[in-house]
Description:
The chain is 84% helix and 0% strand. It is mostly helical and 262 residues long. Helix 3 packs parallel to helix 5 and helix 4 (138-157) packs antiparallel against helix 5 (160-171).
Amino acid sequence: MSKIEISHTDDEQELKDKQAELIRLKTRLTKLELDLATLQAQLHAFEVRYIRSVGVLYSELDEINAQIAEELARIHPDRVEVQNQAQEARAHARETAETVGEVRKKPEEKDAFQPSDEIKQLYRKLAKQIHPDLASDDDDRSQRNDIMAEVNRAYEDGNIERLQQILHEWKTSPEAIKGETIEARLARIVLKIERVRQRLTAIRLEMESLTQSRLHELKIKVEKGEILGRDVLGEMAIRVRKFIEDSKLRLEKLQNTQSEDL
């Protein structure tokens, strides 16, 4: 057997080994991608629920507090810190109002994101075939990014039909079939393995960040409360309503003081 034949055989074996490694990593990646997409969707659904029940009250409170700050700014026109506080309070009230407004524009959503086994399985299949970190070049990666963004939207919406359509379109696209030499395929697989490893690390970091967020902590608190028969969001809403009443009284006093001075 010539050196060329031996080398060729070695390349084939290495290619098989790398293919097996890539398969294992892709399986792990698709699971983590599903876990991340599920967590993001669950947090989004909870955020909408929170805004509808409590956030809207905080928006009202922020508006009243902004009016209080503006009344104080009129009473103390020469105090720079009071003027700055009024501007900051108004900007904050505008920001929270915009957030609440965006949620109100959306149709009513379910209180929680609960994906079916069917849609999870379909998501895994799509992620395994289309994931951007399996791209062969920048153009391929860009296309895969766009498709995966659409996959994530359909998954969050629970749109199985759209996911099935995306899968069919991908399987029948020219990009899904590419002929290559052993050497080129080996080089590509090595690159894919590295990218998958990088993505696995990125997902773990992102999930760690999400699970340590205040929103996630509140979600867990609410869920634990529900198990014990408590309405944590309802309790929060009661407290905010009390703050609103107190702030309204303060605003009225300031406005009355202004009227008396005039």
